[in-house]
Amino acid sequence: MPTVAPLDLEGHCIATAFIGGVPYFALADGVVHRLDHGHKWTELHDGLLCATFDTAQRRLITGGEDGKVCALGANAETEALAEIGRKWVTAVAIGPQGAIAFATGKIAHVRFGDGKIKEFAHPRSVEGLAFAPKGMRFGVARYNGATLHFPATEGKPLELEWAGAHTGITFSPDGNFVVTTMQENALHGWKLADGKHMRMSGYPMKVKSLSWSAKGRWLASSGSPAAIVWPFQAKDGPMGKAPLELGTRGNAAVTCVSCHPSEEIVAIGYNDGMVLAVRFSDQKEVLLRRPGKGAITAMAWDEEERRIAFGCEAGDCGVIDLTG
C-alpha cells in the first residue's frame, strides 16, 4: 500500500518537482518549499504565476508578478534569469541548449543559453508557451490559434488558426502534432505535416492539465470525471478515434494528470484531493491518496519512478511513496 508523507502549507500550489531527489513545492505567494532533511523554504517572488521543471539542468524555472524569471536548483541555489520591470510573467517554457521562453502581456521572450534575450510581439496576449522536442522552435498559444517561431532565425512564423481563445500549448514528443487547451471546454490540435485539424471536444469543464505518456503514444487530460486519454499512435493522431476514459468518478472531477516516466500509467488528481494511478492497458486502478482539503493542482514523479510529489489549491501537499 502506498504511503503519504504530508506537508501542510497555506496557499495554492502551482508546481512540484524533484530536484536531486528532493521534492519542491512552488506556491502562489512566491515561496518554494522543499522537504530536504526537514521543511525548508526559499522566498523567490513577490507572487508566483507560473513554473516549470527543467529536466536537463535539474532546476525549477519560475515567473512572477514582480517581472522576474528565476531558476531554483539543488540545495536551493537561485539565479535571476531575467527582470522585465513591472510586468507579470504569465508563462514559462524550457527549450534546448539552455534556452527558456517566457511571456509578458503580448510579448513572448526567448532567453538563449548565452543570456541574450529576443522578443516576439503578438497582436493579442501570449497565453501559453512550449518548445518543440527537436530543434530551436517554440509555440505560442493565443487568441484564434497558435504561432510557431524559429527564434534563432529571422524566418516567418507559422500561423495555426482556429477560432476561440487558446490558453495553453504542447508539442507531441515526436514533434508531429501541436495541441492547445481552449477557453471553451475543448482541446484543439494540428498535424504539422499537412495542417490537418484535430477537434477534441465534449469536456464538461475547461482542460487545465495535460501530460504525454512515456513514448508519446497517448495524451492524458483533465476536465472531466475521468482522465480523458487521446491516442496518438496513428499518423493522423486521434482523428476518428475515441479516447480512453480512466479513473472515472461520478461525483468528482479530474484536475491534474501526470504520466509515469517510462510506463503507460497515469497519476490522476481530483478536485477533492484524491489521487489514483491507472494503467492504460487494462484500466487497473490503485488508490494513492484519499481525499483531502482541496483540488490537486500539481504532480511530479521522481527519477526513480517510485515517488510522486503533489500539491493542492488549498495548500495541503506531500509525497506519495509507491513502495509503501
TrEMBL record:
Pfam families: ANAPC4_WD40 (PF12894). Keywords: Repeat, WD repeat. It comes from Borborobacter arsenicus. This is WD40 repeat domain-containing protein. It comes from the Bacteria. Residues 261-322 form the Anaphase-promoting complex subunit 4-like WD40 domain. InterPro entries: Apc4-like_WD40_dom, Quinoprotein_ADH-like_sf, WD40/YVTN_repeat-like_dom_sf, WD40_rpt.
